[in-house]
Write a structure and sequence with these properties.
The complex is a heterodimer. By secondary structure, chain A is an all-alpha fold. Chain A has helices at 2-30, 38-56, 59-82, 88-109, 131-136, 144-158, 160-170, 172-177, 182-209, 220-230, 235-258, 264-282; strands spanning 119-121, 137-139. In chain A, helix 2 runs antiparallel to helix 3 (59-82), helix 2 (38-56) packs parallel to helix 4 and helix 7 crosses helix 9 (182-209). Chain B has a domain at 82-332: ABC transporter involved in vitamin B12 uptake, BtuC, CATH 1.10.3470. Chain B has a two-stranded antiparallel ribbon. By secondary structure, chain B is mostly helical. The chains are: A mainly alpha, B mainly alpha.
């Protein structure tokens, strides 16, 4: 029983980490931009959070610094790929390389100290057996997921802005014809994605770990992209997707302790296979945004 | 209705119709502006990189010298550069083919890895070694890469699922497949003699030395592999095929406007599917080159996390090279050599006390510095055209 509770706790943490990033990526993908630089935004957020926390001696200011760094990287991505119309994969790959290099070089030369945000325990709710601790006794930014999920859904499905985003992702030409500034919406959504990804990275460094190590996100940005795909590009699906990825990861980490003999590789790969199977079986009803990953040039601009 | 029908041509696709050979005065002026912008952007990129080096307390000049010395400074350095470039170029050719068909294959890392895995599996089970064995290994590596692109091709044309998404996902499946295989003694994990003091590592047995790719020039501490020559030959073949063959025309038509292809009664699935498979095959072949040319065994440390350790970023760099070369294999030769030089230069950096990861920074900045001038010029043209349109209406 204790084991189950521990695995659930770690699964909740890892899923929340992915969810922050995945929600931002979901918004971006619905607008048609497959933002592979989330990996870089996340890593940049993780580094800046610890750096700012060390400079100001406050983990909270560090968290804000991480979010700011995510936004900064997103502005670079947005301006280059959705104003200058450089291919978004070129920009994304370049940014990932750039951030990995810059954070590694700086981490080796600036002084970083240990800073971690506090655990917040919600009374009563945390006493629920099994899931109580997992959901209600975590580092406090964890609880932002309860805010981020409905906020993202509302932004995407209930605002004019969200409707226009979806139009940009489905058919940018028609969106332009209806007066939607496609490139501007895409820039905006990439910046929002940067805020989310920066928060995710900061949550990893000053929230879960307390320090920064080289390439500490280790491809989690890509996992978040996969979770959006597994979640078939809607908010509820993305939440389930991150839970599956986070759960599998937590289970893999706990395997030696529990003493169950499953190949860890199978656990890691299962969510990806699930995503591919979903597309194989349900392709008609659960398709991606039509214009996903395609560049767009507004001729009238 | 599949995704491809709805897809607009990529604005960065080279034009379907060739321009006049003689440059006009306007073209010359554009060329001069382009060159000036390029110099400015590269200067800015180097400036930023030097700034970063200075922040860490090292001298930018020392780092620059070390990098040029390590990439072009001696025969050994040049050989290292070209060996890296051969691998990157092979991946890039495949990426170019897919892009010219309007398809975005971002699964080179996985296809490369599976190529290495297939090559190692076949090579280790062959009862003979030597030139024939090398050919068989390389062919199976290419076949492995193509196989890894088969599912995306099927999902794209039978199910309408974007190949961007599926090729990306399959990267991670490939890394885990290798990790699984080299951690299982009944699959590919190395066998060690009984009572051997060290436990078997997560890697395959080594291929016989006779399965090593022949080298062109050999000296103390260096050996120029034939990969760069083979890759350059492949570039020429592919470039001619794309430009001159009817298959190449269909490929370009598909990239330019998938509807034309359908109206002509051609099957876009067959052309695009072939392009994707071919693209995967090139990435797989590059994996085979790395296997037979350098490492002779496949490794997949579990600790490498989401990234594969065998592919070592060659797949991403090949993709990036194709993108920077604007999908033209011939230009990709230059970009691949540049990327190879950065890799080689980075290898010697640790001696200067600067983290070799600074190479990634330089690479990224150079990529952007090359991409920006072309885009700026095109945007100006588009604006002028739009202004002309408005005047007319």
């Amino acid at each position: 029983m204790n084991d189950v509770s521990l695995v659930l706790e770690s699964a909740a943490r890892l899923s929340a980490l992915l969810l922050f990033v995945a929600l931002g990526e979901l918004l971006a993908e619905r607008a048609g931009t497959l933002n592979i630089s989330v990996e870089g935004m996340m890593l940049g957020g993780a580094f800046s959070a610890v750096y700012v926390a060390s400079e100001t001696d406050s983990a909270f200011v560090g968290l804000l610094g991480g979010i700011g760094a995510g936004l900064l990287i997103a502005i670079v991505q947005a301006e280059l790929s959705h104003r200058l119309t450089i291919n978004q994969f070129v920009v994304g790959l370049a940014i990932n390389l750039l951030v990995l290099g810059v954070t590694s070089v700086l981490a080796a030369s600036v002084h970083l100290s240990y800073h971690q945000l506090g655990v917040l325990r919600i009374p009563l709710l945390a006493d629920i057996p099994a899931v109580g601790k997992a959901l209600f006794q975590q580092r406090w930014p964890f609880y932002l997921v309860y805010l981020a999920i409905p906020l993202t859904w509302w932004l995407l499905m209930r605002t004019t802005w969200g409707l226009e985003l979806r139009a940009c992702g489905e058919n940018p030409e028609s969106a332009t014809a209806s007066g939607v500034p496609v490139q501007r919406r895409r820039r905006e959504v990439v910046m929002v994605c940067g805020l989310y990804a920066g928060l995710g990275g900061a949550f990893l460094s000053v929230g879960l770990i307390g320090s920064f190590t080289q390439n500490m996100t280790a491809g989690r940005g890509f996992v978040a992209i996969a979770a959006v795909i597994l979640g078939s590009w809607n908010v509820a699906g993305t939440v389930v997707g991150t839970l599956i990825f986070g759960g599998a990861d937590a289970l893999r980490l706990a395997l030696p302790a529990i003493g169950v003999d499953i190949a860890p590789q199978l656990l890691i790969v299962a969510p990806y296979l699930l995503a591919l199977m979903t597309m194989l079986v349900f392709a008609q009803g659960r398709r991606q945004p039509y214009a996903l990953g395609q560049g767009y040039e507004d001729v009238s601009a | 209705m599949t995704v491809t029908e709805n897809r607009a041509a990529d604005p960065q696709e080279p034009e379907l119709v060739r321009r006049d050979w003689m440059p006009s005065r306007q073209r010359l002026r554009e060329g001069a502006t382009f060159a000036m912008l390029l110099v400015l952007c590269i200067g800015a990129a180097l400036g930023i990189a030097s700034g970063l080096v200075a922040v860490t307390g090292a001298s930018p000049g020392t780092v620059f010298d070390a990098m040029t010395e390590g990439s072009f400074g001696s025969t050994a350095a040049l050989v290292t550069t070209l060996n890296h470039a051969g691998l990157i170029l092979t991946v890039a050719i495949g990426a170019c083919i897919a892009f010219r068909a309007g398809l975005v294959n971002i699964g080179q890392e996985g296809q490369f890895t599976i190529g290495g895995l297939a090559g190692a599996a076949v090579g280790l089970s062959l009862p003979f070694s030597g030139v024939v064995a090398i050919a068989v290994i390389l062919l199976s590596a290419a076949a492995g890469g193509a196989l890894w692109a088969l599912l995306p091709a099927f999902l794209l044309y039978a199910r309408g699922v974007s190949e961007v998404v599926t090729t990306l996902l399959l990267n991670f499946v490939a890394f885990q497949a290798v990790s699984y295989a080299v951690n299982r003694s009944f699959l590919l994990q190395e066998t060690v003699p009984k009572n051997f003091p060290v436990a078997p590592q997560p890697q395959s047995n080594q291929l016989p030395e006779a399965d090593r790719l022949p080298s062109l020039i050999q000296g103390i501490g260096y050996s120029l592999l034939i990969t760069i020559v083979v890759a350059t030959a492949l570039v020429l073949i592919v470039a001619i095929f794309i430009a001159r063959s009817s298959w190449g025309l269909r490929l370009r038509m598909l990239g330019f406007n998938p509807r034309i292809v359908r109206r002509l009664g051609l099957r876009s699935g067959r052309i695009g599917g072939a392009a994707l498979l071919l693209s995967g095959a090139f990435a797989g072949l590059a994996g085979g080159f790395l296997l037979t040319g350098v490492v002779l065994r496949i490794q997949g440390g579990f600790s490498s996390g989401v990234y594969g350790s065998f592919s070592n970023n060659y797949g991403w760099e090949g993709l990036l090279a194709a993108l920077v070369a604007r999908y033209r294999p011939v230009y990709a030769v230059v970009v691949a050599i540049l990327f190879g030089a950065l890799r080689a230069g980075g290898g010697v950096l640790s001696a200067t006390g600067v983290s070799p990861t600074i190479v990634g920074v330089v690479q990224a900045l150079v990529v952007l510095a090359v991409a920006i001038p072309a885009i700026l010029l095109r945007l100006r043209q588009r604006r002028a055209q739009a202004a002309l349109m408005r005047e007319r209406t």
